[in-house]
Specification:
By secondary structure, this protein is an alpha+beta fold. About 45% of the residues lie in helices and about 20% in strands. It has three domains: about 55 residues, no CATH class; about 110 residues, Immunoglobulin-like (Sandwich), CATH 2.60.40.10; about 40 residues. The strands form three sheets. Strands 3-2-5-6 form a four-stranded antiparallel sheet, with no helix packed on it. The protein has a three-stranded mixed sheet with strand order 4-1-7, with no helix packed on it. A two-stranded antiparallel ribbon has the order 8-9. A hairpin with a 6-residue loop joins β8 and β9.
Amino acid sequence: MLVKLIRARFGQIRCSLLVIVSITLLLFSGLSMNVNAEHEWDHTYTINGEVFQGDGSTASDVEVKIDCSVGKSEPSLCEENLGRSERTSMSGKFQLALHVHSTDHGLRLVLDIDGQSFNHTINLNGDDGQQTEEDRTVDAEFTLDHDVSKMGMYIIIALVGMTITVPFLYVIRNSKSSTNQPQVSRSSLKKKASTSVEMARCPKCDVKVKESNLESHLMKVHHQSESKAKELAESVKDE
């Protein structure tokens, strides 16, 4: 009974989590599509990047933003992309969509990745020197000179663990309560049954007395012989 209840509750929780994750992914993908659809392709420049730590492992959950401090990115690029930033995924990848113009070809863009600067040149021309939609997406890799703090990842893991553990503990607690309750009820009924007193009505005076005391009552109050009192008592019990 307990196992079936746990399985049923866990199945409900798993379905709820899947729905939440699906909605979250749809929202994120919707936001990404909105960013990419803000402008026509000739006004869009997308960097598909992958970030590595100093030891060669991928750098997850680090911020990637445009460095618009003095002497860094070209001011025209900063004016059109102020505040744009992304964070790397668990695999260290990110996609940064920028608003550019055809005249921005060759301009310098400086990316700030976890506090380290990386120079990138806007290249809008293909191998044939023409600007096409395919040329508006570039792939790039960035290697940090330091290791990234794992605190953000630990927090995410802890939150995911709590999201799974708390509902599971709640199911276990409710399951124990539901299984203990019938036992208490049966115990109460048994106790009540054991403490209840059987009453009988005296055939002589119509007074209710304990069934176990009826024979004695007939002998003392109504002066019946032992055999007669026993016979009357048995007849009352049989009714």
